[in-house]
Design goal:
CATH architecture of the largest domain: 3-Layer(aba) Sandwich
CATH superfamily of the largest domain: EreA-like (biosynthetic domain)
Order of helices and strands: EHEHEHHHEHHHHHHEHHEEHEHHE
Mean pLDDT: 92
Low-confidence stretches: 412-423
Radius of gyration: 21 Å
Distance between the termini: 32 Å
Largest sheet: 9 strands, mixed
CATH topology of the largest domain: EreA/ChaN-like  fold
Number of strands: 9
Shape: globular
Length: 426
């Protein structure tokens, strides 16, 4: 152990989060990160923080790095909608696309149980929601739109059918679609944009604001998913920026849906919620939702909380679409953010960025561990550390000296995509 370079706050129980709640203050958006998609402590402590934000500060919903249709199914369940399911484990089976363990795990089941209990005796406008921000669900969202608009017919239904017909030759495989657009000057962009415009013009459920929002959101997802897959096959950073811009647009729409005084909690990987301008991502003109939210709402209204660990275990795959497995996470490399925190003490700790700016070595970029859904510890030192100015990237950071893998609901995995279309797996 060496002398601490800065103040920190040990965390052992929920009461120790008081300092973080004080730091949040009157912020409208709190983003809670994770250094991997398969670590138990990240989920359980984000649940503890979220519960306190909802109960003590009136936050209205949690928005996560998950697909809209599947997360909306969970939203219906936690709000007690009719025919929304009765068992949590059964409802979480909706997450069938690899990597299933991200949201189909027992830690998320505990979150869902708490949210459903919290909502039980509250009016519909007081119920806390659960939504997905991501952009991958091209076919699922198209199907949801078509199912919704066909009940009413008209121009919107015709546009939705045209969009579905345009995509039919690609057999529900976004890779097939992406590759086709790379070699042949044709795509379905006009069809999905026309569908979105028609859906936006024609209210689908005028007496049910959230149901109407769901229909329109699926149309928006289809538009941005089409753009995402089309740009991804061409390489570069454009597809990353399409994805995070979509997530920011969705967050903004959700805040508008819930009213001018609404507050949002966001759960995503550190690579999304930690301000990209404080990392080497900025060198490639990459942006992320944390940066966009600070720019739009102002840094005083957005609090970004990173998470990390020194060593432990994680659920991941050795390749895209590979079977999930428990993988050992080695000790962090010397000189990294995580190794610095370990050298200071082996306590789990909360650090506020305001206490870091006076430390010279933290005013420059240092390595900060990031583990994706694809992970091989043999290559960690070459690709799992993001050069980061820590106090610029986050408002607070929660560190665990040793963590354990998340506990998946063991499910069959389908829909594995080939890795060349997924250069970033965060």
């Amino acid at each position: 152990m060496e002398k601490a370079l800065f103040n920190y706050h040990p965390i052992r129980k929920e009461k120790d989060l008081d300092v973080l709640l004080h730091e949040v203050g009157d912020a409208r958006v709190v983003m809670l990160g994770e250094a991997s998609h398969g670590t138990s402590e990240y989920y359980t402590w984000r649940t503890a923080i979220s519960r306190r934000l909802v109960e003590e500060k009136g936050f209205n919903f949690i928005a996560v790095e998950g697909d809209w249709p599947e997360c909306y199914t969970v939203n219906r369940f936690i709000k007690g909608y009719q025919k929304s399911g009765s068992k949590i484990a059964d409802v979480l089976q909706v997450f069938r696309r690899w990597p299933t363990w991200m949201w189909a795990n027992w830690e998320v089941a505990a979150l869902v149980e708490w949210m459903r209990d919290f909502n039980h005796l509250r009016s519909i406008n007081e119920k806390v929601g659960f939504y997905g921000l991501d952009v991958y669900s091209l076919w699922e969202s198209l199907e949801q739109v078509l199912q919704s608009v066909e009940q009413r017919g008209g121009k919107a239904a015709e546009a939705a059918r045209n969009a579905m017909q345009c995509f039919e030759p690609y057999n529900r495989d976004p890779q097939n679609y992406a590759r086709a657009t790379a070699f042949v000057p044709t795509d379905c962009e006009d069809e999905v944009i026309e569908m979105l415009q028609r859906v936006l013009k024609q209210p689908q459920f005028p007496d049910d604001a959230e149901h109407d929002f769901n229909s329109k959101q699926n149309a928006l997802v289809a538009v941005n998913a089409e753009k995402y897959y089309r740009t991804m096959v061409r390489g570069g950073v454009s597809s990353w920026n399409v994805r995070d811009t979509h997530m920011m647009e969705t967050l903004d729409r959700l805040l508008e849906l819930h009213g001018p005084q609404s507050k949002a909690i966001v759960w995503e990987h550190n690579t999304h919620i930690g301000d990209a301008s404080a990392t080497d991502m900025a060198d490639e003109n990459m942006i992320n939702i944390g940066q966009l939210a600070r720019d739009k709402y102002g840094p005083e209204h957005v609090k970004l909380v990173g998470f990390g660990t020194y060593k432990g275990s994680v659920i991941a795959g050795k390749a895209w679409g590979a079977p999930m497995q428990k993988i050992d996470v080695p000790e962090a490399v010397p000189g990294s953010w995580e190794e610095i925190l370990h050298r200071i003490s082996d306590e789990d700790k909360l650090i506020l960025s305001r206490d870091l700016w006076e430390v010279p070595e933290l005013k420059k970029r240092i390595g900060h561990r990031a583990i994706g859904v694809v992970y091989d510890p043999k290559f960690e030192q070459f690709g799992n550390y993001v050069p980061t100015i820590i106090p610029g990237r986050y408002d607070a950071f929660i560190y665990f000296d040793e963590t354990e893998a998340v506990h998946p609901l063991h499910m069959k995995i389908r829909g594995a995509q080939e890795p060349e279309l997924y250069p970033w797996n965060y």
